Amino acid sequence: MNKKINYQEEKSLIMIYTLTLSPSSDLLIKSDKFELEEVNRYKDFMLLPGGKGINASVILERHGFNNIALSVFDKNTLDSFKEIFEKENVKIQNIDHPDKTRINIKYYGAQNSFELNGPRTVLNSNLKSQISEKLNKLTSQDILLIMGISDEEFLFDILNILNKNKVNFVIDVDSSKFKEFLSFKPFVVKPNIDELQRNLQVQIKNENDLINSMKEIQELGAKNVIVSMDKNGSYLLTDQNEIFKANIIKPINIVSSTGAGDTMISIFSANYLKSNNAKESFKLSNSAAMGTVASEWVGDLFKTQEYLENVKVEKLELKK
């Protein structure tokens, strides 16, 4: 019998915050086919709050991890999602943006899929000041998950605030300044292969190359490093200098890959802080990510439990 998980019984004493500086309204469309230069009709659609931090807040709440989502939706868009946030028990601390929140279109068809993402949210000096004021209230008992695209210079301001107040943080952003962010010693980072090769100026051809690149990221300041290989599993280098590989035992039906990375990094971070068990947390995060891949939005605790036995985690020996 599979071991059941019940996070409602024991929640971390650490308060988790997520930060989404470029939120979105995500229009998810499902249809049998899509043809260019034709009138296409779709069967089903959903309009959902989007942004990597928002996804993380939803998945964390669905797994019993209490958290607060910091964001900058415009007031009308935020009001339109009020019912969804209440249903998901997501607690939002929003700073109203004067401009309309961007709209992302995500199409999922029987033969193909694509995304059209709106431009990054622009933050004026007043918004930045209000965000900084909120972040200055965080303490060493908190952790902040910084996720998604944003103004790179403002990210440095944020990291300096966190460093000054000894606030633990996770950062999951694709940025040319990635290596510089590592000097602030993030708790977890999750670069992909392309980001590793680009930032470290290396070619990753095999597992040994990958592990060496992860070790270099750790030497630059990151405490825990996760690299996902999608259907080929993922790797974790921990702050205890252990490396684990997670393998997917059986392929699953992919509904949408949106939010899988957000799920993996947020569930690993939250559970590792709570349990101090890296291997268990890594297994859980991979299972949760599969649950999200098999869902139209993000996964839930039921799906995570369903896929737990479909993940095998092995410890690898680090070569000297």
TrEMBL record:
Please list the residue ranges annotated as the Carbohydrate kinase PfkB domain. 26-295
One protein family per Pfam: PfkB
Q: Which InterPro entries match?
A: PfkB_dom, Ribokinase-like, Tagatose/fructose_Pkinase
- This protein's UniProt keywords: ATP-binding, Kinase, Nucleotide-binding, Transferase
SUPFAM superfamilies documented for this protein: Ribokinase-like (SSF53613)
Give a Gene Ontology cellular component term annotated to this protein. cytosol
Q: Name one GO molecular function term.
A: ATP binding
**Which family would the database say this protein is a member of?**
Belongs to the carbohydrate kinase PfkB family.
Q: What is this protein called?
A: 1-phosphofructokinase
